[in-house]
Amino acid sequence: MTRTIALLLAAATLPAVPTAAQTPPAASSQTFAPLFAAEVERARRDVDASIKAGINVPVPKDPGGGFTHEQHKRNYRIIFEGGQLFRLTGEARYRDHVRDMLLAYADLYPGLGPHPAKANQNAGRLFWQSLNDSVFLVNAVQGYAQIRDALPAADRKRIDDNVIRLMARFLSDGSPQVINRIHNHATWAAAGVGLSGYLLGDRDLVDKALLGLDKSGKAGFLRQLDLLFSPDGYYAEGPYYQRYALQPFVVFAAAIAANDPGRKIFEYRDGIVLKAIRTAIDLTHDGYFLPINDAMPDKSLRTEELYHAVAIAYGATKDPAFLSIADWQGRTVLTPAGQAMAADLAAGKAKPWPFGSRLLSDGPDGKGGALVLLRTNADPAGPLLVAKNTVQGMGHGHFDRLGWLYYDETGAVVTDYGAARFLNVEAKHGGRYLPENDSWASATIAHNTLVVDEQSHFAGDWKAGEKHGTRQLAASLEGPTRYTIAEIDSAYKDVKIRRALLLVEVDGLANPLTLDILHGTGSGRHIYDLPLHFSGHIIDSDIAFDRNLAERPVLGKANGYQHLWVDGTGTKAGKARLTWMQGSRFYSYHMLPPAGARFIVAESGANDPEFNLRREPALIQRVEGAADATFVSLLEPHGAYDAAAETVVASSARVAALEHRQEKGADLVLITLVDGRRVALAVADDTTADAKHSLTVDGRTMTWTGPVGRLDLAKTGAKK
């Protein structure tokens, strides 16, 4: 009997893997829940089409997006789906097709050397980078496990020795520079090697996957769980790569739970695997992952990695909130875990996912900073302020400490470019990261944070950045005034940056305000730039811009500045405003910049000979020759636009005035609305939770405990 690779926490709940003398039940004799039934039919279409087309196992040639690359990807999906269909239906044609495909790989794989399209990554055999070989093995082992005992001994031996074991050896002993890393590539390799070990009954492979090649525990799957996640389940490289890495983590964890139950893998490190799944779901807006660091903005919970993660997490916890995520996904996986989850979803057991504000610590010990999510309600598409006060994010990290993003039901409002890449589009640099990923997307000026002297944080060196965390000083996740305060003094050698972001609900305003107080404190004289990247069309501004109509100068020569066209520059004393429209809403950005500041309206896309960059707007507040600089800004969503009805409501801002002063160790900001009401917000320099503070505002005493205080003032009095 083959060693079952279980995809549920309890191996006893799994149906037996069929043997040559044991045929699984036909699908027609089973009743599947709708979600799982749709998955079965989708897989039938895929595998039936592959059977009709015949076995196609080409000699590897192309990089990502090329024919051979895509064909081998299709093949591992067919192996996975075909094996699961045989388990579910007992139809010999599915077993035979998977067998024939694997036998074709048994003929091809032993003669392969490094991939001919290898680049600067570690070369694979079937694919241009070994990462894809690991993904192949993770999928192929799961499919092969379902047919293995139903094969003649000779076929089983050929596949075991010439495909599974050979690939596992290449990805372990043959690739020490990969599997011994602490990185998502190593996670995929460890999962492929470990799953192979369980299938083949090879304890050596399993232990190398769990503990590293020397079995010391200094590398391997368990060490990756120790070092790649914070105590809150936040992944070092950010949400996009958390999504990608989840599949090997959860699939291998489920196999460990079934085959090595004594390890109690789902309890390991205070349940870090399940925490990581929950955190990944929280790191979305309207189902789409927050695109910080190297990230594609179109990646959502509707992805293979999360289908596996949600099914396995539900099997391990029976938390009905996972069912609502599966319902949103509209997909599951062809495994017992997916089948059981679909049945409970159909039985009406789902409950809404509890989206809320979260402070997700970063770093293995949770002391490297945090990603802070501030939400005003549980609506997955509702207002969301993201403060990126994290560690660098390894080689996929961008140089934007203390950056921020803002979302609401119109989508991304204050935006992040994400990665400069056309994934698997061969015509675009073979689907790899583009040169502009380094020259623009990673640069600090491409993000919503302070830039000093036109240099990126840590001089654009991610390895230097990885050595220094960010200090998360304080946060409040509930109430009408939610906030986060953080600082860093290592991004530039002689400038400290401190930023407070407040999400402020005000009676009578349909959407919260975002208050941003940023201090740059340095020695000597500097150029301070504070960019805001936004989505939408500029409506108007009270800044008198000198517009570049005949030609568009470029803002700078390096560090991302060479990619910015300058559309206009202007100055304005006191409060300034820029209003834009996105979808059905208007947004006004109110600013109190340092004295002598200029405003620059810019657009990405300069010095882009291959048209690799998206054209996106930015507003930059710039002050030159200053030792210190304080920027106070307020984002106000307002009004509505209905294109169908041709109606416009409240296109003008309701914030009439914005004032700022520093006194008694605090920043005091006064927001005046058009109806005369005022909101006073104070942020203390001392961020300790029990510190007591007092200020006088409009003749009234304002007292508070902790970092942030608030006083709402009517036209003729005050109320707390």
TrEMBL record:
Gene3D superfamilies named in the record: 2.70.98.70, Chondroitin AC/alginate lyase (1.50.10.100)
Residue ranges of every copy of the Heparinase II/III-like C-terminal domain listed in the record: 385-618
Source organism, top-level taxon: Bacteria
MF GO annotations: lyase activity
Signal peptide: 1-21
Residue stretches making up the Exo-oligoalginate lyase C-terminal domain: 675-706
Record key words, sorted: Lyase, Signal
One cellular component term from this protein's GO annotations in UniProt: periplasmic space
Domain Alginate lyase: 83-270
Localization annotation: Cell envelope
Pfam family, one: Alg17C_C
InterPro entries: Alg17C_C (IPR055076), Alginate_lyase_dom (IPR008397), Chondroitin_lyas (IPR008929), Hepar_II_III_C (IPR012480)
Chief place where the protein resides: other
Name of the protein in question: Alginate lyase
Organism per entry: Sphingopyxis italica
Organism placement in taxonomy: Bacteria, Pseudomonadati, Pseudomonadota, Alphaproteobacteria, Sphingomonadales
